[in-house]
Amino acid sequence: MNDLKIMTIFGTRPEAVKMAPLVLELQARPGVKSLCCVTAQHREMLDSVLDIFRIRPDYDLDIMRPRQSLTEITTRCLSGMEEVLSEASPDLVLVHGDTSTTFSGSLAAFYRKIRVGHVEAGLRTYDKYSPFPEEMNRRLTGAIADLHFCPTASNAENLRREGVKTGVFVTGNTVIDALKTTVRKEYRFVSPELSDLPFETKRVIAVTAHRRENYGEPMENIMLALRDIAVEFKDVELVYPVHLSPVVGETARRILSGVPRVRLISPVSAEDMHNLMARCYMVLTDSGGLQEEAPALGKPVLVLRRETERPEAVAAGTVKLAGVKREEIVRLARELLTDPAAYASMAKSVNPYGDGHACRRIADAVLWSFGRRETPPEEFKPL
Question: 243 an active-site residue?
Answer without folding.
Answer: yes
